[in-house]
Amino acid sequence: MTMTSSWTAVCAAVDIPEFSGAAALVDGQQVAVFHAGDGWYALSNWDPVSGAAVLSRGIVGDAGGEPVVASPVYKERFSLRNGECLDAEGVSVPVYPVRVRDGVIEVGSP
Fold first, then answer.
1. pTM above 0.85?
2. Distance CA 60, CA 78 (A)
3. Which partner from 52, 98, 105, 108 sits 20 to 30 angstroms from 39, CA to CA?
4. In terms of C-beta density within 10 A (0-12 exposed, 13-18 middle, 19 or more buried), how is residue 28 classed?
5. What is the pLDDT tens value at each position of the chain, 110 positions in all?
6. Which NCBIfam families match (predicted)?
């Protein structure tokens, strides 16, 4: 378990519809926050394949029970749980802790 030293309020949970995402700035880093069917996730917004900060605008879905986001550029799928790319071996994005407190989404800084 990763200890989180601080949390940044991002937005109200109702502002991110189910199966969609939004970008936020957390400690100077672009973070993509997602509301998938089974919970909330936060990944780096940076797509390492295209080199663009676009993952928050990707398509949120499911790949064999794994919640994923498909990049809007080349459609690589990234696990929302661990950031690993399902379509390119050895490619991944950082994952951030995320929680909802009093209806507000907060992203943690490890």
1. yes
2. 10
3. 52
4. exposed
5. 556 679 999 999 999 999 999 999 999 999 999 999 879 999 999 999 999 999 999 999 999 999 999 999 999 999 999 999 999 999 999 999 999 999 999 999 86
6. nirD_assim_sml (TIGR02378)
